[in-house]
Write a structure and sequence with these properties.
The complex is a heterodimer of chains A (511) and B (415).
Chain A: E1 4-15, E2 18-29, E3 33-37, H1 44-52, E4 60-66, E5 69-71, H2 76-81, E6 84-87, H3 99-103, H4 117-130, H5 146-159, E7 164-168, H6 176-191, E8 195-199, H7 203-209, E9 212-217, E10 220-226, H8 234-242, E11 261-271, E12 279-289, E13 293-297, H9 304-311, E14 318-326, E15 329-331, H10 336-341, E16 344-347, H11 351-355, H12 362-366, E17 375-376, E18 379-380, H13 382-396, H14 412-425, E19 430-434, H15 442-457, E20 461-465, H16 469-475, E21 478-483, E22 486-492, H17 498-510
Parallel strand pairs in A: 3-8, 3-9, 6-7, 7-8, 13-20, 13-21, 16-19, 19-20
Antiparallel strand pairs in A: 1-2, 1-4, 4-5, 9-10, 11-12, 11-14, 14-15, 17-18, 21-22
Helix pairs in contact in A: 4-5, 13-14
Chain B: H1 3-9, H2 11-26, H3 34-43, H4 45-59, H5 68-85, H6 90-114, H7 119-138, E1 143-144, H8 148-155, E2 157-158, H9 173-188, H10 199-226, H11 233-256, E3 260-261, H12 262-280, H13 282-292, H14 294-299, H15 304-330, E4 332-333, H16 341-351, H17 363-383, H18 387-412
Antiparallel strand pairs in B: 1-4, 2-3
Helix pairs in contact in B: 2-17, 3-11, 3-17, 4-12, 4-13, 4-15, 4-16, 4-17, 5-6, 5-7, 5-15, 6-15, 8-15, 10-11, 12-13, 13-15, 16-17, 16-18, 17-18
Classes of the chains: A alpha/beta (511), B mainly alpha (415).
């Protein structure tokens, strides 16, 4: 019989009005990497929160059998005591503290007189080596990138003597290179006997790393696919997730690129807002036609977001120089308001942090960028506002009981739709979409792609920044490749491949 | 509406009713005397005005303005000195005082909005700065105000000759007409025309109540014609009828004391303007947006610096307005005028349901909070409770209110 480190039996968890989990069963063998997949809101995170004690024993029904014993975790501490550690999608690190301090937060290494700092940093660096981090343990978290921060989280788990590691979307904010490194690290740990459960939307990663794949849909377990021979393909997983096979992941589109140029940027330079002698965007020129989707590829930190935001009314950076043409006319934009009025939209990659007011309604968020359109002499016409919100809710098929629902209560995909609605309502002619499908499920991704196709069909220009190369290849007419603030390649999507893009990046690194 | 949802929505209103009943009983009904009910409003006029402005500051992200007590003192000091030392007409003096408030607001708004000085520190410095300046202006003395025009503008009562007051011998045409109305109306409602009764207050109250009900009906008709969603008939009319009845009852009490205080009109003007701004205008919406997510608001093309600037500029302006009210009511200004007014305003906002993290809170809610504090103050004074214990009670109420708010939201909302 298989040696199960964890068995979750008939787990049912109800929230007021919703059954989030309905008799879910999960069996994890010792020393395997077990993937949990499902659309957003399917109940993956809820299940893991039940396991880790975030939802204490008694608020759910069913049994958790860990190492052959039935467990009743009341708090996170209880589950950590037996070696279950969960790393959440949003990293729980404190930017102003050092790596070492973060690693032993709530678990401090004490000496006779308070905290033993020498021991803290020594042990921290030991664990950091295990995950391949070479920085000093005294480096502040805010000074290292997201990729390294993710590694710090894992090192932190190791410091807690982890037996079963749960990773919730560990690679969602990483570029492909860092993501690959992280996954290889997991495979490495597997050899030394660590069991992991990984939640992810990135199916290629799951196919690469997981031994077993459990599919959850609508709060119930659908199936567990054996992937020990690494033969399961993505379509097979998607079929389980959406309950039907999905032949085409990118919607069909007639490529009707106009000769007219929607926006053109020439000789664009941007410097870092704090380290003002650091050049973040280096002499970049590009254009996007009307009716065209242009992709921006590159690694994390290539300067794509910085470029986009600096164009959008100098929302980022200092010492910005260069020329910007919209619809053939040169414009100078001094703030975000002027950018919006000139027909630009920047749809942020960080929809919760920079995009939406989470504890306000869908209606309010939809009209936020152009409130003047539903105003009469400064007075808001609430009825008109509601009409607008309804209209976009229908158009984008946002799943919500009402437009008065707070945006924070929606799933990631629906939040993204509200964000898109906001910019569509702003009458933008040129839309810069920064990672528009990050952290949202396959079904919602498809709908976002459809919306993009609609936009270009209306003759608008779309710039799509994405770290997922397949989606750039699937959606764009043309692809620009950036690396370290410079433009290193431009190619028609029809000729582009993942290898070509990576080659362009790597070649520029050497130069 | 379910009972729990109802309680959650109207927590503070229910608390206000309960507290009011408790104090009515404890004072053997003295709280309900016309004089006390009239004073309840006058004594808290400054809190009602100040908390409107404070709400805007708090909306931007739980930021407060600590300097307003001192600003009240400085604006009041300038006014009192100008009135007693020079012959400048009262109306001009009032304008100068308001202008001084605007200037102080621009000063603080500039540092907070455009230079990003933390509001707490900037207004803390203002608290010392303006208090000191005020004492310099006052030359450390108590300056009393004897200008009748000034006092009439803020602290008199509306008493219409003929309708409210009866002269020994007959007056002009209007007097006789109004007097005729009085002689016809009072017996009609079972009152003696010879008694002291400022009937104009009651008439105004009834007219406002009728107007409110009519407006609600018109609004409903408009909405249903366009097919918009609306509250159920019972909820909406239940609410409006309770409000109308309260207005009529209160105006009856005023009629039995000295009539409508002019100060009430000033307070009403400020409250209505701020209620309108926060609930209906784009300008007001920006305060909620900034408090909810400042970065997202900025990226939506909204000038967030200006939002901060306006919050503090309006706050100091209202401080000057309330300085006039306080100076006129007390009749003098000294170096301690306005002490801890900021705490009353902040307390009212939080009791009235404004979020300590910014982004939520309404003017009606804050008014309920201010009146709740006022009722407790007044009730304790009538009972004759020791001043020190009054502080203890106020502190306990503030904490209880916020605890209740946090806990009830936690249980019903998302964790």
């Amino acid at each position: 019989m298989a040696d199960h480190i964890l068995v979750m039996k008939n787990i049912t968890k109800e929230f007021p009005g919703v059954k989030a989990l309905d008799n879910v069963n999960l069996e994890v063998e010792r020393g395997e990497i077990h993937a949990l997949v499902g659309e957003n809101g399917a109940g993956k995170s809820t299940l893991m929160n039940v396991l880790s004690g975030t939802y204490p024993y008694g608020t759910y029904t069913g049994d958790i059998i860990y190492n052959g014993e039935t467990c009743q975790f009341k708090t996170l501490k209880d589950s950590e005591k037996v070696g279950i550690v969960i790393i959440h999608q949003e990293l729980a690190l404190i930017p102003e503290l050092s790596i070492g301090e973060n690693m032993f937060l709530g678990n401090e290494r004490l000496g006779r007189f308070g905290i033993d700092w020498d021991r803290t940093y020594h042990e921290a660096e030991e664990h950091m080596q295990q995950v391949g981090l070479k920085d000093s343990a005294q480096t502040l978290i805010k000074d290292i990138g997201t990729g390294k921060q993710q590694l710090v989280e894992i090192a932190k788990a190791l410091a807690k003597n982890v037996k079963l590691l749960i990773l919730d979307e560990p690679t969602s904010s990483l570029n492909e290179e860092d993501a690959k490194m992280l996954l290889d690290l997991l495979l490495e740990f597997k050899k030394s006997g660590l069991t992991s459960i990984i939640i992810s939307h990135k199916l290629n990663e799951i196919a690469y790393v997981a031994d077993k794949i459990t599919v959850i849909r609508d709060g119930a377990t659908i199936e567990t696919i054996d992937n020990s021979s690494r033969e399961v393909d993505e379509d097979r997983i998607i079929q389980g997730m959406v309950g039907r096979s999905m032949d085409d992941r990118y919607p069909e589109r007639e490529h009707l690129v106009s000769d007219e140029i929607g926006m053109e940027v020439r000789d664009w330079n941007v410097f870092h807002p704090i380290y003002t002698d650091k050049k973040v965007v280096d002499n970049i020129s590009f254009n996007v036609h009307k009716g065209e989707i242009v992709g921006f590829s590159g690694l994390q930190g290539a300067g794509r977001t910085e470029l986009a935001m600096s164009i959008f009314g100098k929302a980022y950076g200092t010492g910005i120089t260069g020329h910007l043409f919209i619809d053939g006319k040169e414009v100078r934009l001094h703030n975000e308001h002027e950018a919006i009025m000139a027909g630009l939209a920047y749809v942020t990659e960080d929809r919760k942090g920079n995009g939406l007011v989470l504890d306000k309604s869908i209606a309010m968020n939809t009209t936020m960028a152009r409130l003047d359109k539903v105003c009469d002499r400064g007075i808001i016409d609430t009825n008109k506002e509601n009409q607008v919100a309804e209209e976009y809710k229908e158009k984008l098929r946002t799943k919500t009981p009402s437009i008065h629902q707070n945006v924070g209560n929606l799933s990631g995909g629906n939040q993204q739709k509200v964000l898109l609605a906001k910019w569509m309502f702003a009458d933008s002619e040129v839309l810069i979409l920064d990672e528009p499908t990050r952290g949202i499920d396959v079904g919602a991704k498809y709908e976002i792609y459809c919306i993009m196709n609609d936009l270009v069909a209306q003759g608008k220009s779309v710039i799509m920044i994405s770290s997922e190369m397949p989606e750039l290849l699937g959606m764009c007419d043309r692809i620009y490749v950036m690396n370290e603030g410079r433009m290193v390649a431009e190619m028609p999507a029809s000729e582009a491949t993942q290898e070509k893009i990576m080659a362009a990046i790597l070649k520029s690194d050497k130069a | 509406m379910k009972v729990t949802a109802f309680i959650k929505k109207y927590t503070m209103v229910i608390a206000l009713v309960v507290v009011f009943i408790i104090f009515s009983v404890l004072t053997d009904g003295r709280l309900l005397y016309p004089q006390n009910l009239s004073n309840l409003l006058l004594q808290n006029a400054y809190v009602l005005v100040l908390s409107c402005g404070m709400l805007l500051c708090i909306l931007t992200g739980g930021n407060v303005d600590l300097s307003i007590g001192s600003t009240v003192c400085l604006a009041g000091a300038i006014g009192a000195q100008l009135l007693s030392q020079t012959g400048i007409p009262a109306v001009i003096v009032i304008l100068i005082c308001i202008a001084s408030g605007v200037l102080i607001g621009i000063w603080q708004g500039f540092w907070i909005g455009y230079v990003h000085i933390p509001p707490f520190i900037c207004t803390l410095s203002g608290m010392f700065l303006f208090r000191g300046l005020a004492r310099v202006v006052l030359d450390s003395k108590t300056v009393s105000i004897k200008n009748n025009t000034f006092l009439n503008i803020f602290a008199s009562y509306i008493q219409i000759p003929g309708l409210d007051t009866v002269k020994e011998e007959g007056g002009g045409f209007f007097y006789n007409m109004l007097n005729g109305l009085r002689n016809w109306l009072l017996p009609l409602i079972g009152q003696d025309p010879e008694q002291k009764l400022f009937i104009s207050a009651a008439i105004a109250g009834v007219l406002v109540a009728i107007a409110l009900v009519v407006l609600t009906i018109v609004n409903r008709v408009k909405k249903s014609r366009k097919g918009y969603r609306q509250d159920s008939f019972i909820t909406e009319f239940g609410r409006i009828i309770i409000i109308a009845v309260l207005i009529v009852l209160y105006s009856w009490k005023l009629a039995n004391y000295k009539g409508i205080p002019v100060m009430m009109l000033w307070v009403l003007a400020v409250v209505l303007i701020y209620a309108f701004i926060t609930s209906r205008t784009a300008f007001g919406r920006y305060f909620y947006a900034v408090g909810g997510n400042e970065k997202a608001t900025k990226l939506s093309g909204i000038n967030t610096q200006k939002v901060y600037f306006m919050a503090y500029a309006s706050m100091s302006t209202l401080a000057a307005v309330s300085a006039m009210l306080v100076a006129a009511r007390v009749g003098s200004v000294n170096g301690d005028t306005g002490t801890s007014f900021e705490m009353d305003a902040i307390g009212s906002c939080f009791i009235g349901g404004a979020s300590a993290y910014g982004g939520s809170g309404t003017v009606p809610g804050v008014m309920v909070g201010a009146i709740l504090l006022g009722v407790i103050n007044q009730g304790m004074s009538i009972i004759g409770l020791d001043n020190n214990w009054q502080y203890v009670v106020k502190g306990a109420v503030l904490l209880t209110a916020v605890i209740f708010d946090v806990v009830s939201n936690h249980k019903t909302g998302k964790a």
